[in-house]
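Technical note accompanying the year-one report. For the benefit of new consortium partners, we illustrate the data format agreed upon in the data management plan: each record pairs a sequence with a C-alpha coordinate string. No post-processing was applied to the example shown here.
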Amino acid sequence: MYRSGCPLSNALDLIGDKWSLIVIRDMFLERTTFKEFLSGPEKIASNILSNRLKLLKDYHLISFVFTEGNKKVKHYYLTEKGIDLYPSMLEIMLWSKRNLGKEFNDVATKWFDKIEGKTNKAVIKKQIIDYRQHKEKLLEIADKAA
Protein backbone atom coordinates (compact mmCIF):
# COMPACT_ATOMS: atom_id res chain seq x y z
CA MET A 1 0.00 0.00 0.00
CA TYR A 2 2.78 2.44 0.86
CA ARG A 3 4.54 4.01 -2.12
CA SER A 4 7.73 5.18 -0.45
CA GLY A 5 9.75 5.46 2.72
CA CYS A 6 8.56 9.03 3.30
CA PRO A 7 6.42 9.37 6.47
CA LEU A 8 4.24 12.09 4.90
CA SER A 9 3.66 10.02 1.78
CA ASN A 10 2.81 6.97 3.92
CA ALA A 11 0.22 8.90 5.93
CA LEU A 12 -1.28 10.36 2.77
CA ASP A 13 -1.61 6.86 1.30
CA LEU A 14 -4.07 6.17 4.10
CA ILE A 15 -5.78 9.48 4.89
CA GLY A 16 -4.84 11.74 2.00
CA ASP A 17 -7.82 11.01 -0.21
CA LYS A 18 -10.84 13.29 -0.42
CA TRP A 19 -12.99 11.28 2.00
CA SER A 20 -11.10 9.53 4.81
CA LEU A 21 -10.67 12.59 7.05
CA ILE A 22 -14.28 13.62 6.37
CA VAL A 23 -15.47 10.25 7.69
CA ILE A 24 -13.20 10.63 10.73
CA ARG A 25 -14.47 14.20 11.24
CA ASP A 26 -18.02 12.87 11.17
CA MET A 27 -17.16 10.40 13.92
CA PHE A 28 -15.88 13.28 16.03
CA LEU A 29 -19.28 14.90 15.35
CA GLU A 30 -20.83 11.73 16.86
CA ARG A 31 -22.12 10.34 13.60
CA THR A 32 -21.83 6.57 13.83
CA THR A 33 -23.91 4.87 11.12
CA PHE A 34 -23.55 4.47 7.39
CA LYS A 35 -26.77 6.42 6.91
CA GLU A 36 -25.51 9.31 9.07
CA PHE A 37 -22.26 9.48 7.07
CA LEU A 38 -24.23 9.54 3.81
CA SER A 39 -26.31 12.48 5.04
CA GLY A 40 -23.26 14.74 5.47
CA PRO A 41 -23.11 18.00 3.52
CA GLU A 42 -20.36 16.68 1.22
CA LYS A 43 -22.68 13.98 -0.21
CA ILE A 44 -20.27 11.05 -0.30
CA ALA A 45 -21.40 8.26 -2.63
CA SER A 46 -22.33 5.00 -0.92
CA ASN A 47 -19.73 2.91 -2.78
CA ILE A 48 -16.96 5.35 -1.84
CA LEU A 49 -18.15 5.42 1.78
CA SER A 50 -18.11 1.61 1.90
CA ASN A 51 -14.58 1.62 0.52
CA ARG A 52 -13.33 4.24 3.01
CA LEU A 53 -14.92 2.50 6.01
CA LYS A 54 -13.24 -0.76 4.98
CA LEU A 55 -9.88 0.97 4.47
CA LEU A 56 -10.06 2.77 7.82
CA LYS A 57 -11.06 -0.46 9.56
CA ASP A 58 -8.30 -2.47 7.84
CA TYR A 59 -5.75 0.03 9.17
CA HIS A 60 -7.28 -0.01 12.66
CA LEU A 61 -8.34 3.64 12.67
CA ILE A 62 -11.97 2.67 13.23
CA SER A 63 -14.00 -0.27 14.44
CA PHE A 64 -17.71 -0.96 14.86
CA VAL A 65 -20.38 -2.59 16.97
CA PHE A 66 -23.80 -3.75 15.87
CA THR A 67 -27.05 -2.09 16.87
CA GLU A 68 -28.87 -3.82 19.69
CA GLY A 69 -31.20 -6.40 18.17
CA ASN A 70 -30.20 -5.58 14.59
CA LYS A 71 -27.05 -7.10 13.12
CA LYS A 72 -27.53 -5.10 9.90
CA VAL A 73 -26.80 -1.67 11.40
CA LYS A 74 -23.22 -0.99 12.45
CA HIS A 75 -22.14 1.84 14.71
CA TYR A 76 -18.63 2.91 13.81
CA TYR A 77 -16.21 4.49 16.26
CA LEU A 78 -12.63 5.67 16.29
CA THR A 79 -9.86 3.57 17.78
CA GLU A 80 -7.08 5.28 19.71
CA LYS A 81 -5.09 5.40 16.47
CA GLY A 82 -8.01 7.22 14.82
CA ILE A 83 -8.48 9.57 17.77
CA ASP A 84 -4.78 10.42 17.52
CA LEU A 85 -5.49 12.14 14.17
CA TYR A 86 -7.41 14.97 15.86
CA PRO A 87 -4.44 17.31 16.47
CA SER A 88 -3.53 17.13 12.76
CA MET A 89 -7.15 17.67 11.75
CA LEU A 90 -7.35 20.73 14.02
CA GLU A 91 -4.27 22.21 12.40
CA ILE A 92 -5.72 21.64 8.92
CA MET A 93 -9.02 23.28 9.92
CA LEU A 94 -7.23 26.28 11.43
CA TRP A 95 -5.01 26.58 8.36
CA SER A 96 -8.16 26.55 6.21
CA LYS A 97 -9.68 29.38 8.25
CA ARG A 98 -6.48 31.46 8.07
CA ASN A 99 -5.73 30.92 4.40
CA LEU A 100 -8.77 30.14 2.28
CA GLY A 101 -10.61 33.43 2.71
CA LYS A 102 -14.07 31.94 2.57
CA GLU A 103 -17.14 31.69 4.70
CA PHE A 104 -17.82 28.31 6.23
CA ASN A 105 -21.09 26.56 7.06
CA ASP A 106 -22.95 27.22 10.33
CA VAL A 107 -21.47 24.20 12.10
CA ALA A 108 -17.92 25.27 11.29
CA THR A 109 -18.58 28.93 12.09
CA LYS A 110 -20.06 28.07 15.50
CA TRP A 111 -17.15 25.73 16.18
CA PHE A 112 -14.57 28.41 15.29
CA ASP A 113 -16.41 30.86 17.57
CA LYS A 114 -16.46 28.29 20.37
CA ILE A 115 -12.69 27.73 20.25
CA GLU A 116 -11.77 31.39 19.76
CA GLY A 117 -9.07 32.41 22.25
CA LYS A 118 -8.38 28.85 23.39
CA THR A 119 -5.04 27.17 22.93
CA ASN A 120 -4.80 24.31 20.49
CA LYS A 121 -3.79 22.07 23.37
CA ALA A 122 -6.98 22.92 25.29
CA VAL A 123 -9.17 22.39 22.20
CA ILE A 124 -7.54 19.03 21.48
CA LYS A 125 -7.83 17.87 25.08
CA LYS A 126 -11.54 18.75 25.31
CA GLN A 127 -12.44 17.23 21.95
CA ILE A 128 -10.66 13.97 22.74
CA ILE A 129 -12.21 13.73 26.21
CA ASP A 130 -15.68 14.43 24.76
CA TYR A 131 -15.18 11.86 22.02
CA ARG A 132 -13.96 9.17 24.42
CA GLN A 133 -17.06 9.73 26.58
CA HIS A 134 -19.29 9.37 23.51
CA LYS A 135 -17.41 6.22 22.50
CA GLU A 136 -17.77 4.70 25.99
CA LYS A 137 -21.54 5.23 25.91
CA LEU A 138 -21.72 3.57 22.50
CA LEU A 139 -19.67 0.59 23.67
CA GLU A 140 -21.71 0.24 26.88
CA ILE A 141 -24.90 0.00 24.83
CA ALA A 142 -23.28 -2.60 22.60
CA ASP A 143 -22.11 -4.62 25.61
CA LYS A 144 -25.63 -4.71 27.01
CA ALA A 145 -26.93 -5.93 23.67
CA ALA A 146 -24.40 -8.75 23.45
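Partners are asked to follow this layout when depositing records. The longest strand covers residues 70-78.
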